[in-house]
Structures are given as structure tokens and as C-alpha cells.
Amino acid sequence: MDLLRAIFIDPFAQMIGSPDLLAQTIWEGFVGGVLYALIALGFVLIFKASGVFNFAQGIMMVFAALTLVGLHEKGVPAWVALILTIAVMYALAVGIERLVLRPLVNQPDIILFMATFGITYFLIGLGELVFGGNPKSMITKELFLPGGSIDLHIPGGRVQLQKLDIAAAAVALIMVAGLALFFQKTRIGRALRAVADDHQAALSVGISLNQIWVIVWFTAGVVALATGIFWGARSDVSFALQVVALKALPVLILGGLTSVPGAIVGGLIIGIGEKLGEFYWGPLLGGGIESWLAYIIALAFLLFRPQGLFGEKIIERI
Amino acid sequence: MVSQTASPSPAPILDVLNIEVVYNAVALVLKGVSLNVPKGGVVALLGANGAGKTTTLKAISNLLRAERGEVTKGAIVFDGERIDRLSPNDLVRRGAIQVMEGRHCFGHLTIEENLLTGAFTRRDGRAAVMRDLEAVYATFPRLKERRSTQAGYASGGEQQMCAIGRAMMSRPKLILLDEPSMGLAPTVVEEIFEIVRDLNAREGVSFLLAEQNANIALRYASFGYILETGRVVLDGAAEALRSNEDVREFYLGVAQSGRRSFKRVKTYKRRKRWLA
Ligand SMILES: Nc1ncnc2c1ncn2[C@@H]1O[C@H](COP(=O)(O)OP(=O)(O)OP(=O)(O)O)[C@@H](O)[C@H]1O
Ligand SMILES: [Mg+2]
pLDDT per residue over A137-162, tens digit each? Predict the structure, then answer.
């Protein structure tokens, strides 16, 4: 009886009792969720356009962040380093297209999936070789990212918002909006959606898959850089950071591999869900449930919606 | 019997010279196919299921590579240039585009977006593309009505129109049209073929159409090739083919006993081999 009470009543009573704590928890979950969503977005873009499940997405994030701070460490001014890092991500996209996708196109999906393992270890090796293996800290100040926090007064107390978190949410929002516009309104964006719909038909109208792949991997690389900057600012920049990329997996289970809105909403659900779980139910289990709760949330969702959140509308008619 | 060496016209836009196609590096599917399409002509490529019509068209448009197919022998000349090694992207730019069997519209894109993807390779500016979009809408008024419908929800006939319209947006000289009649009601098929004729006459676009429905194809084409298990077994002017005994019997289904059957096509093949 006591246990049931502790699970089903106490946490909610606590939430209502101190709404400021609840709001604080949700905000922190939201910011985490935004970053998960960005990582998942990278996966989805690549999967839709090239049919590849990119195991290297997490490493691309770390590699981008590492390149940025590493260049700065070597004396390059922050803004130049940022531009150079973007250039490196472009070179990476071109390299992957030339050396991995193009030769392996038409091979079974599993081969391409395995190839992304290769990319992963290549990036780890390259990163450590050039910039060293020790953790570095993100150059937030140099990039003019705000520090400190602001207090928001709400009925029942106040919520503390880190300015960095606000910046992360804002950047994520701008990126998602920018991508949506790009996909809907531009010639290349339209071609990208065409490729995602039907590779063969896209080829037949003269869309160059090679060009599209470069664009998509580059876009995913830039998204990875943004995510890497903000995750790196919360902890350190090191290859250990890639474990947060594993959080993208439950997000993908939840949102579906092919749905951009699914990645975003899935990311938010996982982010907020795990923070609430950790804060209100964690103590029951002795804490530390954040690391696996995400998977439980995703699996629970799957039970009720096997097609995922937005199970891509499959249009069936001949 | 019509002679194999008869060619439709001296100035071809497309010349396929004795090509062989192999899938997966083992399966020989085309065993020496030659054909040509005159500038401004409409040529039909006929044959039963699995004869190699689609393979021939994909060899020309080079969509074969994406299916692990390869032209291992012969040559393909389009507009005076060898094109065997060109990518579909290059080919579309030069004016040869395929409308695939089964239409393959982009299901989640609207009809209008589908049409615009056809202009992907063009570099002549937005205004010119928009003018051509209006021209396509003038040819296919139904597409204009449904411009903001997702193509996946359009009817079969509308999808076929969308696929042809999309190809027109690339300003082609030659359209390789694969099985336009597939799965469509006879009146719609008629409508589509009328449009093909119209585009041919008005815009001077040449067509190579692959069809199982020899009946209608030979009414709209001026020349035809009949393909069987990867070989051209017969060719000739459309009227000549329509009055040819063998063709009447096996492809037009107008022989004494009526419907053609696969079994009889097989015995026909055997007889052909013996004749050859
Ligand atoms: N991707 C492929 N890999 C291996 N074999 C193939 C492939 N595509 C087609 N074939 C084979 O090539 C032969 C010719 O096929 P093709 O699709 O060209 O015929 P078709 O004349 O277009 O037939 P249909 O009228 O059914 O469309 C068939 O025997 C088919 O099994
Ligand atoms: Mg076919």
C-alpha cells in the first residue's frame, strides 16, 4: 500500500505542492530534450535521404565540438575556428559521399550501416591524433554565448533559467525553423524530399543523388556542431560525450526513423520525461534512473503506438 | 515478314546499336538489341512481360546502374553523342528523360512540387520554369485543378499525367515512356495517348514508348519494334505491323480464336527460333 502511494500519489502531491520545482524540472528536461531532438534530427535527415542508419551521428557531434575547441587551442580565433569547423564538416560530408556512399550504393543496408561504424572509429582516431585525447572545455565565452542565469517569478516561487540553456533552445528553434523553410521552399529542399520519397524516380528526373547526399551529410554535420557546442558547454568536450548521442535511440524509437516532427516531439518527451522521472520517482529506486528511463519511456510508448508517434503517413494507392 | 534492317528514318535522335545488358554481372537480359528513333518520331517498343522493354529504356536513360545492371556491349547514341557512360543527371540535362513504369510520382509532394522537380537540372531561371509550368497546366488542366494535392492521393490517370508533365518540365527532346497504359481505364489510356501525340506534334518531342498494349501503341506510333526474351524479333512501320499475321495473332489478339495466351506466345517463340 505504501509503495503504491509512493508511486501514484506522493509525486503528484509534490508537484502540486511546489509548482516552482515542477516548472524548474520541466525546463531542464526541455533543454535536454531540445538537444536530443537535434541529434535525432541528424539521424532522420540522413536516414531519409540516403537510407543509411548513421551510427556515427554521435561521434560527428563530438568530432565537430572537438575540432572547434581544438582549433581554438592551437591559437585560431573563435569565430575563425567556427567557420573552419563548418568547412571541416563540409569536407567530411564530401569525403563520406566519395569514399563510402558512392562505392557502396546498391549494397545491402547492413553494409552501409557497418560502414558508419568505420566512420565512427575513423573520426575518433583522427580527432585524438590531431587534437589529443584529453577532455577540453567548450569556448562558450569566446563564442559570445551568455553565462549566468535569470530568475523567472511564477506563482508559488521562482524558476532559474541558465542563459546558456535559453541560448541552446533558441539556436535549436532557429535551426529547426530554418531547415523547415529550406525543405519546403527551395529547389534543393524539394529535391531532398523527392529523394526521400523515391530514389529511383529522383534519379530519373535528373536529381543527382551524390549532390543531395553531400548536402544532407553536411546539414547533419552542422546540426551536430550546434549540438556539440551546447552539450560541450554543459560538460566537457571529450569522446565520452558520445554517450548522450545514445539518447537519440529512444527518441528515434519514439518518433520514427523518418519523421522530422517525430524527432522533435520525441526528443522533448524523452528529455522532459526523464527529468521528471529522475526527480520525482528516482529516489524510490535510489536515484540514477536517468540513464535508462528514456528506453523505458520509449518502450512504453511503443506498446500503445507501435508505429511510433507520427508513424509516417504511408500513402497507399496505385 | 517485315525486314529487320528497315529503319524508320535517316536522321535519328536516338540510335541503339546492338546492346547487351547484364544484371548482377550474371543474368544476360538483352542479347543484342538495336533500334532507333527518328527526330520528332513516336516509336513503340512492344513485347510481353519480361521481354526486356523496361531494361532497354533503362539502358538508354542509364537508370540501370542503380539496379546493378550494366550495358556490356554495343553503343547508345543520342543526338549525335555516345551516352553509354553518362549519368541520368547528364542525360536529362541533354534532353533525354524517362517516365518510369508505374509512374513513380513523389507521393508526399504536391502535384505542383512534383512538376517542379522535373526542372531540377535546368539553369535558365525561375521565370522560364514558371512559364513551362503554365504550359504543362495548359496541356493537363486536371493537374492544375489538383496542383496542391499530394501526388500519392491523385488518381492513376492523374499520376500518369503528373509523371509526363514532370518530364516535360525538363524541356526534353526525347521521352522514354514506359508502360503508360498500365492499370488505367481504356478511356484514360486514350486520353494519355492523345496527349502524347499532341506533345509530339506541338513541341516536337520524340517518344520511345514501351507497351504491352500493342493495340493502342501501334495506333499512335509510326514505327514499332517487337522484343522477345531480349531480342528484337520483328520491326516495321506501324501499319505494316498491324497487318502482320504474327503480330495480329500474338500481340493484337485478333486471330480466329481470339485471346492470346502465354502458352501460345511460348510456342510462337519456339517457332520463331526455328524460323531464325
Ligand atoms: N533488377 C533486376 N535484376 C535482375 N533481373 C532483372 C532485373 N530487372 C529485370 N530483370 C529481368 O530482366 C528481364 C526483363 O525485364 P524487363 O523489366 O525489362 O521486362 P519488361 O519487358 O519491361 O516486362 P514488363 O512488361 O513486365 O514490364 C526479366 O526476365 C526480369 O526478370
Ligand atoms: Mg517493363
Answer: 888 888 888 888 888 888 878 888 99
To test the ligand 1 pocket, which listed residue (B31, B53, B101) has its Cβ within 8 A of the most ligand atoms?
A: B53
d(CA A22, CA A279) in angstroms, rounded, equals 9
DSSP A204-226: HTT--HHHHHHHHHHHHHHHHHH
**Which of the residue ranges A186-200, A242-256, B204-218 would you say has the lowest mean pLDDT?**
A242-256
Residues of A within 8 A of B118 (CB-CB) are: 205
pLDDT-derived band of residue B275, with 50, 70 and 90 as boundaries? very low
Interface of B with A (CB under 8 A): 61, 63, 65-68, 87-89, 91-93, 97-100, 104-109, 113-114, 116-118, 120-121, 150, 152-153, 156, 166-167, 170, 183
Q: Indicate whether A316 belongs to any domain.
A: no
A41 in Cβ contact with A223 (< 8 Å): yes
Residue B198 pLDDT > 90: yes
A170-196: pLDDT as tens digits: 999 999 999 989 998 999 999 999 998
pLDDT one-digit tens code per residue, B98-133: 999 999 999 999 999 999 999 999 999 999 999 999
CATH number, domain at B188?
A: 3.40.50.300
In sequence order, the 6+-apart residues with CB closer than 8 A to the CB of A20 are A154, A156, A157, A158, A159
List Cα–Cα distances, B109 to A191, A194, B150, B265, in angstroms. Answer: 10, 7, 5, 41
Model's pTM, two decimal places?
0.85
Among A272-276, B197-201, B206-210, name the one with the lowest average pLDDT.
A272-276
Domain containing A177 equals 2-304
Residue B249 lies in a domain: no
Domains in chain B: how many in total? Answer: 1
Number of domains in chain A: 1
Cα A129 to Cα A26, A55, A66, A67, B182: the distances in Å are 40, 21, 12, 11, 58
CATH number, position A267: 1.10.3470
Q: Determine the 3-state secondary structure of A266 from DSSP.
A: helix
Chain B neighbors of A107, CB-CB under 8 A: none
Q: What's at A277, amino acid-wise?
A: G
Residue A314 in any domain: the answer is: no
- Residue A318 forms contact with B (CB below 8 Å): yes
Has residue A10 been placed in a domain?
yes
